[in-house]
Design the sequence.
């Protein structure tokens, strides 16, 4: 039976490609003075959403967030309260859009090592060697680096023609998938419908939002908490990957919630 893996990306406003990390898109820098107000609301409302259900969720956290005491305390609190259903993966060190730049194995390796060490220290047994490339910018050359650092899963590929350039110049999503397979890294691509994105920005970007919400309403049962690790790391398990941003929870005056079907069952 096909099942659903729920994941959340923890970008603040200062992390998005329009603000930093991209060679051409980063034209609107956001001054870093701690967590943004929208982000604080997002954290609060995401925690409220966790309290309202029993779904297991994987949090993809950016390493540099752990320098912020407010975020540290929040993460520690939710891991203590909901740790049995939470796993934590790596979303990079600074949200750099790696495949938009020339190949930089050494730079990526250094940043990955730094972020991994911080996340392991902060999250303990909740940390898993799972990677999501910032903004979905992932190229074939990154697969070997992930494997070298012990990563078992990559979940960066958005297999839609609309964003195929994120695989890097001259590459395709098939090239990324092949590189991951060659490096023995399981690729958990993001779910699409009609070859259109249904995750992240697509949830609120009209008209993609119409397709996205329909796809989420029809999502198969969510994984049971004690099955998440084995299911995600076993490429023989048929999963669809859904993700949203913690900032989404600040929308609609803090009332936004992921558009899963009401009383969505677990597997």
Sequence:
């Amino acid at each position: 039976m096909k099942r659903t893996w729920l994941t959340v990306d923890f970008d603040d406003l200062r992390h998005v490609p329009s603000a930093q990390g991209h060679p051409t898109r980063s034209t609107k820098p956001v001054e870093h003075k701690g967590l943004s107000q929208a982000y604080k609301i997002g954290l609060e409302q995401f925690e409220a959403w966790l309290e309202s259900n029993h779904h297991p969720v994987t949090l993809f956290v950016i390493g540099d967030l752990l320098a912020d005491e407010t975020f540290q305390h929040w993460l520690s609190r939710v891991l203590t309260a909901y740790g049995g259903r939470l796993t934590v993966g790596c979303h990079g060190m600074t949200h750099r859009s790696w495949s938009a730049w020339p190949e930089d194995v050494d730079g990526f390796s250094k940043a990955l090592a730094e972020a991994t060490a911080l996340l392991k220290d902060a999250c303990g047994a909740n940390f898993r060697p799972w990677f999501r490339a910032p903004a979905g910018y992932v190229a074939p050359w990154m697969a070997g680096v992930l494997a070298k650092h012990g990563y078992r899963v990559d979940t960066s590929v958005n297999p839609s023609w609309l964003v195929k350039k994120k695989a890097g110049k001259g590459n395709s999503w098939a090239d990324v998938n092949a590189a991951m397979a060659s490096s023995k890294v399981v690729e958990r691509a993001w779910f699409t419908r009609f070859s259109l994105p249904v995750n992240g920005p697509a949830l609120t970007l009209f008209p993609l939002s119409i397709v996205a919400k329909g796809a989420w309403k029809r999502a198969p049962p969510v994984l049971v908490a004690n099955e998440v690790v084995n299911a995600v790391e076993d490429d023989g398990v048929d999963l669809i990957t859904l993700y949203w941003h913690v900032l989404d929870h600040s929308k609609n005056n803090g009332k936004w919630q992921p558009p899963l079907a009401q009383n969505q069952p677990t597997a």
